Amino acid sequence: MSNSDIIPYGKQDVNQDDIDAVIQVLKSDFITQGPQIPAFENALKQYTGAGHAIAVSSGTAALHIACLALDVGKEDIVWTSPISFVASSNCALYCGAKVDFVDIDQNTYNMCATELENKLKTAKRENKLPKVVIPVHLSGQSCDMKQIAKLAKEYDFKIIEDASHAVGGKYENRPIGCCQYSDITVFSFHPVKIITTAEGGMTLTNSSELAAKMDLYRTHGITRDENRMTEKSHGPWYYQQIELGFNYRMTDIQAALGLNQLKRIDDFVKIRNELAERYNDLLKTLPVTIPTQIKESYSARHLYIICLNNPSSHQIVFKKMRELGIGVNLHYIPIHMQPYYKKLGFKEKTFTKAENYYKRAISLPLYSKLTYEQQDRVVNALKKALI
Ligand SMILES: *Cc1c(COP(=O)(O)O)cnc(C)c1O
Question: How far is Cα 293 from Cα 144, in angstroms, rounded to an integer?
């Protein structure tokens, strides 16, 4: 089978207009730290309604500076979902903090708000409350943010929404990223995500204080703002390093791509939803379960995940579908089952719903350029594999 016959699980949608936008930047005076970055940030502020947006080199970098801005450090604890990409919890480890997980809801596969509440009650008794909780909007469906935000008030923790899958989606009819129920929201623009900058990410917040901190951490902890300096300027060349930051900047080439992609984001999400609905119909009679969608959420549909009713066929179905040229994938291996996390003391059989999910889950191909014909091929392959 040639590579072109393989249907991947996800793929970018870059058109000539996107390419032209990138070429324009390459021909301009600035290929980094130029005007495209603030333009992209402003466009995302406008799109989401958030007060501040900071473009960075990846979603992972965004998670890292979000944790730093919330002062996550050595004595702190951060909780996230075990069913996520490892970056959702690695960001806390970068800051020297301890990580723990909140098991998923078995119907939506997102962090379960009831599990969260129960875990908070125990943690309070043991004096081990988290400083930050990172709900992950798996496959683009929002977590139960209203309830999580209510618990944040009661138990005094901060919220970072890992919305890497969810840019273009909505919660209670407001765009994901507006930060109504969180301190910071994080997007990723990796090519498989909803819109792309190749590598890239963004943090959004309504707090000017958090935005200023993240802005510092993005570029080495350096400021040119005299109001933030600790001593008088030495002259026009002067800048000060006032924190230990990183080079997490996005380039103007990437920002131009992102800005142009943003024009089509609503179309992308609409097509993804149409394809997802079509899958729902085509799979109706098969022995598979699809995640329940909560009514408050309009999913960006980054992933189309199914769970096999019979976990004993998981390996076989995966192998057969790959043989038939369908690039099925699995999102995700529970983070606590990763060897690195086991070394930190995590054990299997601790987050049982996440582990049960892992025994059944398969991501079917879903991206805006997927044709009905290709989708039919996926479904037929699944039918064959399930026999
Ligand atoms: C993609 C992703 C990230 C990391 O984003 P990068 O841009 O690849 O660094 C973090 N969390 C989740 C849930 C993701 O899917």
Answer: 11
Q: pTM to 2 decimals?
A: 0.97
**How many angstroms is it from 275 CA to the middle of ligand 1?**
23
Please, which residues bridge with residue 78 across strands? 99, 132
* Token couple for 199: 């590598």
Quick one: average pLDDT of 68-88?
98
C-alpha separations of 335 from 91, 160, 344, 348 in Å: 13, 18, 12, 10
pLDDT at 305 over 70: yes
Is residue 81 in contact with ligand 1, taking CB distance under 6 Å?
no
Residue nearest to atom 3 of ligand 1 (CA): 59
Answer whether 188 contacts ligand 1 (Cβ < 6 A): yes
Cα-to-centroid distance, 200 and ligand 1 (Å): 9
Pocket test for ligand 1, best of 12, 56, 58, 60 (most atoms within 8 A of CB): 60
At 387, the pLDDT band (50, 70, 90 cuts) reads: confident
pLDDT of 279 over the 90 cut: yes
* Each residue's pLDDT tens digit, 174-204: 999 999 999 999 999 999 999 999 999 999 9
Cα separation of 79 and 81, whole Å? 7
Q: Which two three-digit tokens encode residue 87?
A: 């970056």
Query: Ligand 1 pocket: which of 85, 134, 194 to mutate (most atoms <8 Å of CB)?
Result: 85
Largest Cα–Cα distance of the chain, in whole Å?
75
Q: How far apart are CA 8 and CA 257, in angstroms?
A: 22
